[in-house]
Specification:
This protein is an alpha/beta fold. The chain folds into 2 domains: about 260 residues, Glycerol-3-phosphate (1)-acyltransferase (3-Layer(aba) Sandwich); about 110 residues, no CATH class. About 30% of the residues are buried.
Amino acid sequence: MRRGSRAEWLFVRIGGALIYALLRLIGWTTRKRYVNGDELLERFARGQPVILAFWHGRMVMMPFAYRGRGACIMNSQHRDGEIISRAIKPFGIDVVRGSSTRGWVGGMKGLLEAYQRGCDLVVVPDGPRGPRYRAKSGVVQLARSTGAPIYPVSYGVTRALSLKSWDELRIPLPFSRVTYVVEAPIEVSAKVTVEEMEALRLRLEESLNRAMVHADHASGIALTTPSEYKRDGVGEPSPADEQSRGETQEIKGDRAMGRFIAGVLVCALIAGGAASPAWAAGKKKSSTKSASKESSDTADTTSSQDDAARAEDLSHKFETFCSTWMDKLREREKYNLAHIQWQPDAGGVVGEYVGYETDQPEHTVSHTEKKSVPIGKLIYREVKLKLSGKSEAEALANKPEIVERTEVTELFRYDHGVWVY
């Protein structure tokens, strides 16, 4: 599906409407309760600003947990991000475009502007690509800039579809019970040091993991706590949780629900494809090829040679494309460096910006078979850098300090002779 095409336009709108309808169906048919949520609900009622944080795998029911006057979340710039944005907007949640892997600076600026307008902020610390259950520092930086407390929130469900995705997304089934667990708020001072920032990040991570495990136990689900987030006592249910455990079991891979969701997505894909003039032509062309297909040993040998040559050509073109992409990242780093928002710090100034390690990116091409769409994968590293000094000029002359390093994976497809994002 080409970017900017009519098919994509329809796909985004139909997909957003279908997901919104699915969320409404789940919301209407589930029962919900809060655990330790009195303080958060009171802040909602008084209109006091908050920052809500939850894991990527527990985001489906979060629009129903929000009771404030208006919120804002950062969402990716990809087509999927646009679909999700349209689905959650009717819940009173605005969206700024960006993520920790693309457009981070612009996204953070958009969130701060939304906060100035009176919006609560919503952050997914392990999004958009993980690793799951590992918090990034962006939410702590938001709290330092705004002064708003961070409320870690999670939910557990008595009956849910658990997807085998990187985030272990849990989708509640109709007529199940949802339990929201709210952990104690995390306050971040405007004068917090880098070392304290890391400690607060770890505290947020542990609070979110604890909320997730306790929510599951409170919903009657006896989980074997995954080793990847079991540490420092996280994952051990409280006595109250043990008493609240029922006899219900988690339903994994529910076939009926799986068929329903697959049907929704297939309908959206068909509707988007049918709108494209090329769809009918492509179908007719495919039928013609199928009717006239012939095979022989000589033809197979020639086809193999052609495929090998095509794969080599694609790899060479993708290598050139990646080199150009790295040049763009270096230009973006120069722009970020030139637009640092300096803050006073201990008689001097301090500022942070996003840079990129572009010297040795990894790049591979797959799906180069004749009837498949070639996919290129590019891996590089994004770093958040800190500069400090007695003046801006001195800070710019000093060697930057690495605050956080993140591995970024970009996927591209080969479309009409060019590589596109």
